[in-house]
Amino acid sequence: MITTWQRYPHSHPRTVDSAVALLLFVLAFPGSQYSVSDVAAPARWWPGVLLAGISCAALLWRRTRPGLATAVVLPCATGMALTGYVMTVLLLAPLMVALYSLAARTERTTAWNFTLAAVILVVGAALIADSAGDSVALNVIGPIAWLLLPAALGSTARFRRAYLDSVQARAEYAERTRDEEARHRVAEERMRFARELHDVAAHHLALANAQATTAALLIRSHPAQAEKMVNALGDATAAALREMKATVGLLRRSDATEDSLQPAPGLARLPELVAAHTSAGLTVTLTTHGQPRPLSPGADLTAYRIVQEALTNVTKHAHTSAAKVDLTYHHDRLAISVTDHGTGPSANPTPGSGYGLVGMRERALSIGGQLRAGHRPTGGFEVNTELPLRPYTPDKDSAP
What strands lie across the sheet with 333-340, from one edge to the other? Predict the structure, then answer.
């Protein structure tokens, strides 16, 4: 019930304004009985009531056109003061309501200019009508106080409404920013899982394909080597299933974070990677320069995946049987170079299959590194990347 009555003025503004205007018009009758000359008061009640009626009618536009309403009410109040009525709150009420509406809905300068004009005109007219100065308190102090009060209250209401609007705007902006950040995080997670699935699938399937092809060629001429190749094929497919199960398992967890990838492979497993490619017929030379230093989990995983993807591309596209991996440790970064001497026409990835290079570049950039890939002047293909040894923290001020 209380809530309904509180909402009624906002849902029925015209009805409320009409009721206010009618109430103020009724109050004008007793207000018109007080004048400077007590003898003339009974015979001069109708001019005050007539001017009050015009003022109250003008208040019907106080919400939509407060300036016009005030411009109509102010001359009426001035006319009542010149006629000789004592400007009590009963006769000043329409002008007070108009000034309040004006202060609450327009700029502060406009509201206070109208208020100053109202004080000067009404008080000046009252002093002219009461030339003897018998009622200075009623004609000067009273009107000034009654006219300044609604202007101050209207300004306060406008400031409060502006403050509430700014609070609501900030809340909406914060909500919108939070939604955008959530969508950004979801997109990052999707890209992270996509890169993991691509690296796992591309690497192990390429090895399995190479091993199966080699085994098919050797099964009659060299059955022992073919059997060894088939066994290696089983190990490659089992490893692929384990890594894919671990990666897809993260999608089922609602609390999957960056720490979920901590047990993922790192540079310590490069010998296993080299052995897997060797079993597929690709001879990989692994060389380390400088003093090996520990990497952050993210950088360690990124370094491993880049080498893994680069060797997978060599197996699939380079038409060569040898590749070289160089690791160079500097004081603040790790440089990785994967090169081959392939001369086949498919040294470049085929159209539509370039996600490997894109994924390697995205991985390097995500931890503050960089990656370059292209043909070598002396023949073959190379992938060069530099990764920071210290954990990378993105600069929020420079983030798009």
Answer: 283-289, 322-329, 333-340, 381-388, 370-375
Q: Are 109 and 137 in contact (CB under 8 A)?
A: no
Paired residues of 375 in beta bridges: 381
Whether 311 contacts 277, CB under 8 Å = yes
76 near 104, Cβ under 8 Å? no
pLDDT at 347: 42
Domain with 8 in it: 2-174
The number of domains in the chain is 2
Residue 210 lies in a domain: no
CA nearest neighbour of 359 among 320, 323, 307: 307
User: Which residues in the chain come in under a pLDDT of 50?
Assistant: 1-2, 38-43, 256-262, 345-353, 396-400
Say what the pTM is: 0.46
pLDDT at 200: 65
pLDDT of residue 282: 84
Q: CATH code at 385? A: 3.30.565.10
State residue 357's pLDDT score. 82
Q: Do residues 293 and 150 both lie within one domain?
A: no
Residues 62, 180: Cα–Cα separation, whole Å: 42
Summarize pLDDT for 125-146 with one digit per residue, the tens: 888 877 665 566 777 888 888 8
Taking the C-alpha atoms of residue 97 and residue 3, their distance in angstroms, rounded to an integer, is 25
What is the DSSP code (8-state) at residue 317? H
Task: Render 213-279 in DSSP notation, one character per residue.
Answer: HHHHHHTTT-HHHHHHHHHHHHHHHHHHHHHHHHHHHHHT-TT--GGGGTTS--GGGHHHHHHHHHH
Among candidate residues 116, 139, 174, the one where a domain is terminated: 174
Phi, psi of 386 (to 5 degrees): -130, 125
